[in-house]
Design goal:
By secondary structure, the chain is an alpha/beta fold. Helix content is 41%, strand content 14%.
């Protein structure tokens, strides 16, 4: 049986890609120290500039704490050809940094849409309808652009690319994940499966709204290479839909709550991973806006919860 270890991410300390670094008072040293103190063994890079952008300095910060760098999230507006030059630049400089800093393993470049940028997708996160999804030609452009970036990253740095389905972006619902995977080559890009984004993003009428997501894991098994553990509070999700709350308001109300306080079937997910002989890390993410809550205390409770179910 493969060994599963547990990391945590900068977003659990309020470093979110659509908020900007200046919004978050938590420094990377505080985040890393608290992450170690609460029992985690790995992390991701966070927004460009949150951690050092010099490879030697970054490696020192991570390895001096006996941590593993798992990857870096890179949001790009793949729908728009005019935005691709800046997107490619960001992906490549991020990949070059990780490849130079950690030559003995291959962190993931985690591609995603430019989430929370499109007004309709932001307004209707958690209840997106086909009417606001990409049109057939837009799907072709979107997925071709994802694969082009993934290919560039792989050829230049050797790092593998994954895609992160995400609320408030164009790959949110089950149908959108299905379409994305149909149009992409698994030799170039595979999936980060995020439990909380999947439950909330599936919508109120989905069989997955209850948090019983093992059938989805089985459905996507051949493409899942990495898993984010995020919970979803059913009451706040329901309020978000009833009151037509936009995505960032739902975040502020705590739709992605501490692990074990929502509806995601983590014991079932863990059992599935072990049956699949999953080896490596799962990453805890409790997306909070800057200044929300008590990140260190939440991180400890999240770790304690995972221990209580055998991880």
């Amino acid at each position: 049986m493969g060994k599963i270890e547990v990391g945590n991410a900068p977003c659990s300390w309020g470093t979110l890609e659509f908020e900007g670094l200046e919004a978050n008072p938590v420094t990377y040293t505080q985040m890393l120290d608290e992450l170690v103190e609460t029992g985690y063994t790995a992390t991701e890079l966070g927004d460009w500039g949150f951690m050092p952008t010099d490879p030697e300095a970054l490696r020192e910060e991570i390895e001096s704490r006996n941590l593993t760098m798992l990857g870096a999230y890179v949001g790009i507006a793949f729908k728009y050809p005019t935005r691709m030059a800046e997107g490619k630049e960001l992906a490549l400089k991020t990949a070059r940094l990780l490849a130079a800093a950690f030559p003995n393993h291959k962190p993931y470049i985690i591609l995603a849409d430019d989430n929370a940028a499109e007004p309709d997708r932001t307004q209707y996160a958690g209840r997106a309808t086909p009417q606001i999804s990409l049109k057939p030609e837009e799907w072709k452009v979107f997925t071709a652009n994802v694969q082009e970036v993934a290919r560039m990253v792989l050829e230049e740095t050797g790092l593998p690319a994954l895609f992160h389905h995400h609320c408030a972006g164009y790959v949110e619902t089950e149908a959108e994940i299905d379409r994305f995977l149909e149009l992409t080559d698994p030799s170039l890009v595979n999936l980060v499966f995020d439990t909380g984004h999947f439950v909330f993003g599936s919508g109120p009428n989905s069989p997955y709204a209850s948090g019983r997501i093992v059938p989805a894991l089985e459905k996507y098994a051949s493409r899942i290479k990495y898993v984010h553990f995020k919970d979803c509070h059913p009451g706040i999700a329901a309020r978000s839909r009833q009151e037509n709350l936009p995505y960032l308001t739902s975040l502020r109300h705590g739709v992605f709550c501490e692990l074990g306080k929502g509806c995601v079937d983590f014991p079932g997910v863990l059992e599935w991973l072990r049956k699949r002989d999953y080896s490596g890390w799962v990453l805890v993410e409790q997306d909070v806006l800057p200044g929300m809550g008590t990140p260190k205390e939440s991180a400890k409770r999240n770790r304690d919860y995972l221990r209580s179910i055998g991880l």
